[in-house]
Each structure stands twice: as structure tokens, then as C-alpha cells.
Amino acid sequence: MVSDELDPDLAELAAAHGVATGYRDGQRRPVRIAADVVIGVLGLLDVDAATPAARRAALASAREHVRLPGTVAVRTDAPYPLPGPGVLIDEDGTSRPVEGAIPAGLAPGWYRLELADRAVTVVVAPPSLAAPDRGWGWMLQLYALHSAGSWGIGDLGDLRELVGWAGADGAGAVLLNPLHAITPVPPVQPSPYTPSSRRFGTPLALRVTDLDAYHRAPADVRAEVDALRPVAHARIEHDRVWAAKRSALELLWHADGRPAPDGPPDLVEFATFCALAERHGARWSTWPPGLRHPGAPDVAAARRELAPRVAFHAWVQQRVQEQLARARDAGRAAGVRVIHDLAVGCDPDGADAWALQDVLALGVNVGAPPDDFSRQGQNWGLPPWRPDRLDATGYAAYRDLLRALVRQADGLRIDHVAGLWRLWWVPPGETPDRGTYVHYDADVMLAVLTLEASRTGALVIGEDLGTVEPEVTEGLGRRNMLGSSVLWFTRDPDDPAQPLLPPGAWPESSVATVSTHDLPTAPGFLRGEHVRARAELGLLSDVPAEEERARAERAEMVALLRTEGLVGDDPDEDAIVLAMHALLARSRSRLVLVAPYDVVGEPRQPNLPGTVDEYPNWRLPLPVSLEELRTDPRVRAVVEALRGR
């Protein structure tokens, strides 16, 4: 990706608006961005850079208006310099004059700074969170659990049961896949990382028979509900599960008197979206024009017309929140942190994109630049935040998102945490290699995260795998937020051969795992399943080379385990998998997480990047039931290996 030299005005203008004109790739080689790409992305931020004259005018405006941004981050232990006097107002409305600086020692919270010509949002955050304890836990794809009580998909009842026995075993954490809300219209999106809304929870995870409304219902209604329970299949069928649960919820809502909950405005707005989706289809961009924005003229009338459906969806979401809270409380009672996962973004035709479109860059897709694994780059199909709109609105949408999640859990994992610093924007109609990075105010993004997590005592984990700038991992560490260390990737970057690191050299401020949902499971790695599956789908250009690479990586792994005294000369698969977890137990990492897929012999990974329907992504149940999982001898052996932490 080589371009002509950018003229100095364009380079300065891009820098003023956080648009990258170059970056370093995975081998730290400089890559320049084409001028027309930079101009196009500036245009997406409402900055006209199409001609030299337009660039000069935009640059003159940027230079003239150099001042405090609309939102600033302040640490509790340091003053923040100001250009002049002002009045600082806290969340209770108490005001105090400030002269020359916002003083150190303020209570953490949200403030408004009134200056002579404008008002600024001030986020006052502690410098760091409390240091996490050393421990271990489980890493679950919740949908993959199945039990005597669940309906074709893992649910919050299964979670409550699991955290109870996990805590009794000495586990201190359970990390979940995202439990974000779906659009309640088929076909249901199976990927938890393409949610309709990240602010609300998925009704797919409800345990219908645990609802108070179920226990209040007449016997004939309960029998009708029970008859709806779907039979489990070899693949998780999201549409069939949702159809059964929706019908059951409809029965219980009617039996309960069709309550119309009094909810906060964001709940009413979300329920309105769900009702409109039932009437007009799942994609709001195809709705009648008068319904395509929550403030559009026809939405209020439609809400009145669809009042029973709005009430139903609000009621369902309140039941989801109740069961999420019960699962969190069950974890607390067992000494287990329930940790939720925050997806990178939302479905561009989902509830959040409709409700928050004023602070999102709709039409733009988040992705990744070209690298050795994806020569054309990646397009994830998710709209990014607009940094300028976040700044102007005091980061309210981002704050409210974090509050919704830490209200449900005692920890939060941030997928692609480097997105708090920068995101690769793919402009509308362009291929991923025709994008560039857009930078965010990481100080403010991290301050909001630190403040909201500190208020609830939440643990924060950042997924910082792959090509990330050093300041990402360093920034997490300074705030006592954990990074991510995966067994396959934890290597010595200073050695030309980049060998696997022994456990004593692993980073302390991290979460250690064997794998992730996008990578081979432990059995799959040992059997070469990740190569076989991709070869079968035609995703590999040189299958023999990949097979040889897989054999070499397996041999390297076994050699490390043998060096550590964890396996003998000819270990079988179960012995190697146990040794992998024993290796994690020896690591310096603060937290070790175990995935059931790795322990119980499942060779297929939950998600195969680069595929949609060619592979059963997000549809693979565990090969054992929840009841069998606890007593499986392989699970017991891994638990014993980890309890010493």
C-alpha cells in the first residue's frame, strides 16, 4: 500500500482529526496510506479535504480553534492545567471555582466545567483499579452448555449451576462470551460478536422455567410452556430455540396479565425497536423513512400503535436483566467473578445502530489492515464510534454502555481493546486494504472505563492479541487491567527463532489461556484439525506446508512440556492437554482460564475466521452435558492442576 507523498496541509489536517497517514505493520515496517483514502476518511468526519483550497480552509479553522476538547480526562492524583478560570460542577450540582487548573484530590466522577465561552465534560478517574488477585477460572461459550434444564442452548440457569460448583472447586472467575441482545426476528444472528445491542441482554439465555411468571402461571399454562421445549440437536439451532422461547414468553406474559413495565427511556426505545422490527423487518435501514431514527416523526405514533408489543419486549428484557443479576449474585455467593465480554461493535442494522446513529459512523466498517494472514485485510461489518461525536456528547453513549455491562457482572473483557486507541476504518464501498486508522482519545476512553469499573469493583481484561502498539499493553498494565496471553502465541520476540516462552517468563499482568474462540482447541491443535478444516473448505493455498507447520508446532509444544517435566517420552492426547494446563498454572499470569472445549476432547474450534455458513460457527455444543462436565475425569484432573494457584 504505497502512495504518493501527502502534501503538508493534508498531513497536518489528518493529524488534527486523528486520521492516520501511515502505520507500522506486524513486522514493524512503515506503511503509507494513499492520499485519496485519507481525504475520503476526513470527509466521513465532515472535514472537506477534497481540494487544496478546501484543505487550507479546514486547516485554518482547525488552527484557529485549538482549545480544550469537549471532554477531558483528569486523574484523581494530578492537577489538570486550564487556559483560564472556570466553574467546576459535580454530579450533585455542587460548584466550585477553579483558576488555572483542575486540582488534584477530586472525588472520582463526572463533572461539568463551565468556561467563559463553553462547557466541557470532565471525567475524573482513579489512576488505576485495584490489583487483581492471582487465581483461575473457566472461559465459557455459554450457548454451548446443555443440561437437563436448558432448551437447546446454554442458558443462565446453566451458568448459575456452573458457578456454584466452580466456586466449590476453588475457581475465582467465569468469563462468558458476549450475552448481548439479538434482534428478535428470524433469522437470528448466531455470532455473539455481531449483536443488535450491546446495552441489553439476549433472551436466548433466559431459563424460561426459572421465571417467577412461570411459577405463578396456572398448571395448564405451565404444561403448555413445557411442551414447547425443543429437543437438543448436534448443532445449536438459534432460530428454533428463539421460536420456542418466544412462544413460551408470550404465554407467560399473557398469563401474568400482559404487564406494561415502566422502564427507563433507553429500555422503551429498545423495546420500540424490537416491535418495529417485528412489523417492518430486521433491517431498520429498509423501514419507511419516518421510522429510521428514534427521533423521526412517525416513531411516537408507531409506539402507541404497537404498545402491546413494546410492553412485551420491555417485559422480556427486564426478565433477562433479572436472571443476569441472579447469575452474578450466585457467582458472588460462590466466590466467583462473572465476567462479561464486550464485542467490538454492533450490527449496522441493529437496535444500537438505530438508537445511537448520531455517534456512530454508519456506512463505515471496522476491520484490520492487510497482514501475513489476510492479504486483503479484514472487514468485520461493524460501524465504529465517531470520535468527534463522542467528544461533543461527553462520551455519554460509551459511558452508558459500560454502565449497563458492569451492572450485570463483576468483570468485563474488552474484545480488541486496541480499539480504545484506534480502529481501522473501511470506508463505504471500499475493500479493507483501502482503509486507514482513525485515532480516539485513549486517555478519555480509558478514564471512562477506569471510573465505571472502579465504581462497581469490576475486573477489566483487554484482548490485546495480534498486532497491537506497545502503548496498548502498557496502558492496560498501568491501570491494573489485564492483557491476554495465549499458549500458542506467547513467544520470545527478542529471539530470532521466537520460541515458546517458559511459564516463568509469561507477563504477570495478563490472563493466560490455551486458546481462544477463533483459534484451534487443544485437541484440534494436537490433531491438526485446524489445518484439515480449512483445507477441506479451500481456504489454504499450500496444504502440505500448513500440515508440516502444524506438526512442527505440535513437536515444539510437546518439547516445552517435556522440558518443564510435565510429560514423558510418549504422552497421549489427554496427558498433553493436562500438561498444557499445568503449564498455565505455573505461569506468572494473574489469572488462568480454562475452556471446556480444550479439556473434554472437542477438536472443532467454536469459530473459524474467514467463514460464515461453510462452517458451524457458534453452533457447536459441548460433547458432554453440564452434569457430565463436572464429574468428567479429565476436568477433575485439570482442576487439581490449577487449584494450587
Q: How would you characterize this protein structure?
A:
- The protein is 38% helix and 15% strand.
- With 645 residues, the chain is α/β, with parallel strands linked by helices.
- The mean pLDDT is 95.
Characteristic terms for this protein:
645 residues, alpha/beta, eight-stranded parallel beta sheet, five-stranded mixed beta sheet, 22 helices, 23 strands
Number of strands: 23
Q: Helical percent range?
A: 25-40%
Q: How far apart are the first and last residues' alpha carbons, in Å?
A: 47 Å
Provide the residue-averaged pLDDT.
Answer: 95
Strand content: 15-25%
- The main sheet orders its strands as 20-17-14-11-10-23-22-21
Which spans of ≥5 residues are poorly predicted at pLDDT below 50?
none
Structural class, judged by helices and strands?
A: alpha/beta
Helical segment count: 22
Rg result: 26 Å
Sum up the overall morphology in one term.
globular
| Largest β-sheet summary | 8 strands, parallel
